[in-house]
């Protein structure tokens, strides 16, 4: 067995909450570090509520755990420097550095031989016209950092281009027939295990559903898993990673990577004996990876904003697993929970 008994998690949202539940099933404790409201605090062993600039709080947090992981990417470098001087961080700092910056991410992916959308660096508003001339229209301007669920993104069409106000990347549009994602895990010993690729549907830049099986040919899903494994190995990764890919006539194109458990992997809670959250805990704690083989067909649907009103009916729906995150009042675009429907 691993010597890890307590896992520190940076971030106290729904991913931290579900990681804490998974850890508890393995007899492990989780200590959450979160500057704001922490739904994970309802189920975790301990919570530290402090800003990432509080060196004393960071030090005490690190000294109370055996290993540190995270549920989101945008942790300040200064905080990571202090934490890593005390305890190991898994996944590693390189994975964070690559995923925190869209330009760095795409450059890394191209460097290991993987295809991405065409892109150009846009440091200032003055660079935008040059980038559009190189990439063309339509295209999409994305902030290099801090963008998620459609935030920090501007579509560039035929009209005047709107500047994001921050260093950005201009991406060419990709003509794709589907978006899929692979949830892959890599252990400290280099063992790799992947869950079945899921078919994603977005609304307003936010994931609405993930369906497994994805309905694509085996050659496509095999290639998707091999691409995800190449990324994990290239980063010497430990933990679970989400890899989003576009399906195109020319082959698979990597959209983005997330160095953590991923929204599109929530279906594993109903479809696998070992879900993505337990798999991540196993990896960062140095335990053997579990069997992620799918034993059921599942559709995962996010509950966003006022979708919460549907919960009474969903609780009475057969073959439906309801997960609520314990957040405050719903608002447009806020993920309040998800449901997993077993379809076969």
Automatic annotation (TrEMBL):
<dbReference type="GO" id="GO:0005829">
    <property type="term" value="C:cytosol"/>
</dbReference>
<dbReference type="InterPro" id="IPR013815">
    <property type="entry name" value="ATP_grasp_subdomain_1"/>
</dbReference>
<dbReference type="InterPro" id="IPR011761">
    <property type="entry name" value="ATP-grasp"/>
</dbReference>
<feature type="binding site">
    <location>
        <position position="102"/>
    </location>
    <ligand>
        <name>ATP</name>
    </ligand>
</feature>
<protein>
    <recommendedName>
        <fullName>N5-carboxyaminoimidazole ribonucleotide synthase</fullName>
        <ecNumber>6.3.4.18</ecNumber>
    </recommendedName>
</protein>
<feature type="binding site">
    <location>
        <position position="202"/>
    </location>
    <ligand>
        <name>ATP</name>
    </ligand>
</feature>
<dbReference type="InterPro" id="IPR003135">
    <property type="entry name" value="ATP-grasp_carboxylate-amine"/>
</dbReference>
<dbReference type="GO" id="GO:0004638">
    <property type="term" value="F:phosphoribosylaminoimidazole carboxylase activity"/>
</dbReference>
<keyword id="KW-0436">Ligase</keyword>
<comment type="function">
    <text>Catalyzes the ATP-dependent conversion of 5-aminoimidazole ribonucleotide (AIR) and HCO(3)- to N5-carboxyaminoimidazole ribonucleotide (N5-CAIR).</text>
</comment>
<comment type="similarity">
    <text>Belongs to the PurK/PurT family.</text>
</comment>
<feature type="binding site">
    <location>
        <begin position="255"/>
        <end position="256"/>
    </location>
    <ligand>
        <name>ATP</name>
    </ligand>
</feature>
<dbReference type="InterPro" id="IPR011054">
    <property type="entry name" value="Rudment_hybrid_motif"/>
</dbReference>
<feature type="domain" description="ATP-grasp">
    <location>
        <begin position="106"/>
        <end position="285"/>
    </location>
</feature>
<dbReference type="Pfam" id="PF22660">
    <property type="entry name" value="RS_preATP-grasp-like"/>
</dbReference>
<feature type="binding site">
    <location>
        <begin position="147"/>
        <end position="153"/>
    </location>
    <ligand>
        <name>ATP</name>
    </ligand>
</feature>
<feature type="binding site">
    <location>
        <position position="179"/>
    </location>
    <ligand>
        <name>ATP</name>
    </ligand>
</feature>
<dbReference type="Pfam" id="PF02222">
    <property type="entry name" value="ATP-grasp"/>
</dbReference>
<keyword id="KW-0547">Nucleotide-binding</keyword>
<dbReference type="GO" id="GO:0046872">
    <property type="term" value="F:metal ion binding"/>
</dbReference>
<dbReference type="GO" id="GO:0034028">
    <property type="term" value="F:5-(carboxyamino)imidazole ribonucleotide synthase activity"/>
</dbReference>
<comment type="function">
    <text>Catalyzes the ATP-dependent conversion of 5-aminoimidazole ribonucleotide (AIR) and HCO(3)(-) to N5-carboxyaminoimidazole ribonucleotide (N5-CAIR).</text>
</comment>
<comment type="pathway">
    <text>Purine metabolism; IMP biosynthesis via de novo pathway; 5-amino-1-(5-phospho-D-ribosyl)imidazole-4-carboxylate from 5-amino-1-(5-phospho-D-ribosyl)imidazole (N5-CAIR route): step 1/2.</text>
</comment>
<keyword id="KW-0658">Purine biosynthesis</keyword>
<dbReference type="Pfam" id="PF17769">
    <property type="entry name" value="PurK_C"/>
</dbReference>
<comment type="subunit">
    <text>Homodimer.</text>
</comment>
<dbReference type="InterPro" id="IPR040686">
    <property type="entry name" value="PurK_C"/>
</dbReference>
<keyword id="KW-0067">ATP-binding</keyword>
<feature type="binding site">
    <location>
        <begin position="171"/>
        <end position="174"/>
    </location>
    <ligand>
        <name>ATP</name>
    </ligand>
</feature>
<feature type="binding site">
    <location>
        <position position="142"/>
    </location>
    <ligand>
        <name>ATP</name>
    </ligand>
</feature>
<dbReference type="InterPro" id="IPR005875">
    <property type="entry name" value="PurK"/>
</dbReference>
<dbReference type="GO" id="GO:0005524">
    <property type="term" value="F:ATP binding"/>
</dbReference>
<dbReference type="InterPro" id="IPR016185">
    <property type="entry name" value="PreATP-grasp_dom_sf"/>
</dbReference>
<dbReference type="GO" id="GO:0006189">
    <property type="term" value="P:'de novo' IMP biosynthetic process"/>
</dbReference>
<dbReference type="InterPro" id="IPR054350">
    <property type="entry name" value="PurT/PurK_preATP-grasp"/>
</dbReference>
């Amino acid at each position: 067995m691993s010597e890890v008994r307590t896992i520190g998690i940076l971030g106290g949202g729904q991913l931290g909450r579900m990681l804490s539940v998974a850890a508890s099933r393995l007899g492990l404790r989780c200590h959450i570090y979160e500057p704001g409201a922490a739904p994970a605090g309802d189920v975790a062993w301990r919570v530290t509520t402090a800003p990432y600039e509080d060196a004393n709080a960071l030090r005490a947090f690190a000294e109370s755990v055996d290993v540190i992981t995270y549920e989101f990417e945008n942790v300040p470098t200064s905080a990571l420097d202090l934490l890593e001087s005390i305890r190991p961080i898994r996944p590693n700092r390189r994975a964070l550095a690559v995923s925190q910056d869209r330009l760095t991410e795409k450059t890394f992916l191209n460097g290991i031989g993987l295809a991405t959308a065409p892109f150009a660096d846009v440091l200032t508003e003055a660079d935008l016209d040059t980038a559009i001339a190189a990439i063309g229209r339509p295209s999409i301007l994305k902030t290099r950092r801090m963008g998620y669920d459609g935030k920090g993104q501007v579509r560039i069409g035929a009209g005047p281009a709107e500047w994001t106000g921050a260093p950005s990347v201009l991406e060419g549009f990709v003509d794709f027939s589907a978006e899929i994602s692979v949830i892959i895990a890599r252990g400290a010993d280099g063992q790799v295990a992947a869950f079945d690729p899921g078919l994603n549907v977005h609304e307003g830049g936010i994931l609405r559903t993930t369906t497994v099986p994805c309905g694509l040919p085996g050659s496509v899903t095999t290639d998707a898993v091999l691409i995800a494994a190449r990324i994990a190995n290239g980063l010497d990764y430990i933990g679970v990673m989400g890899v989003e890919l576009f399906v195109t006539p020319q082959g698979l194109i990597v959209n983005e990577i997330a160095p953590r458990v991923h929204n599109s992997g929530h279906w594993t809670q109903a479809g696998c004996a070992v879900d993505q959250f337990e798999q991540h805990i196993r990896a960062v704690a140095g335990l053997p990876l579990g069997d992620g083989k799918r034993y059921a067909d599942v559709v995962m649907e996010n509950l966003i904003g006022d979708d919460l009103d549907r919960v009474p009916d969903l609780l009475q729906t057969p073959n439906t697993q309801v997960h609520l995150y314990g957040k405050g009042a719903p608002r447009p675009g806020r993920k309040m929970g998800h449901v997993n429907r077993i379809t076969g």
